[in-house]
Amino acid sequence: MIKLNRETDYGVGILALMASDPQARHSAASLAEVRGLPQPIVSKILKHLARSDLVVSYRGAKGGYGLARSPDEISVAEIITVLEGPIALTDCIEDGRGACQYGSQCNISNVWGRINDVVLQALSEITLAETATEPNGGGQNPIHTLEFTGVRHVREH
């Protein structure tokens, strides 16, 4: 199963909420409350995002967190990469054929590479602005439909 970890899922949701008011400063407590998440987890994610220059941390009485760039300039692929690491469906995609004991005999790594490219491209084309949600859950953007082309299944006899 291809699945994002929970922290990445939460991180995208937190950033989507921040993108609904991109000029505002958001406290970890308010983001946690609106998203229904424990504040320590939200704080941990925000610190990670701040170290990666996706959000800016402001100190002081009117401190909090804000987006480092416009939501139109941040892709879902970038968020996933920051929170989870490189987007790679298999070890050989991330680390090369040498990462797999069967790398030299593998006849499907190029297919995995093509599939990975399509997934990466799709995630790169979706911006944080498109994920922006209103705090009350209204105004959510429709789900994107991805079209996978150029990948075909060939069965050898």
From TrEMBL:
GO terms for cellular component: cytosol. One of its GO terms (molecular function) is DNA-binding transcription factor activity. It comes from the Bacteria. Gene3D superfamilies: Winged helix-like DNA-binding domain superfamily/Winged helix DNA-binding domain (1.10.10.10). PANTHER family: TRANSCRIPTIONAL REGULATOR (PTHR33221:SF2), WINGED HELIX-TURN-HELIX TRANSCRIPTIONAL REGULATOR, RRF2 FAMILY (PTHR33221). This is SUF system Fe-S cluster assembly regulator.
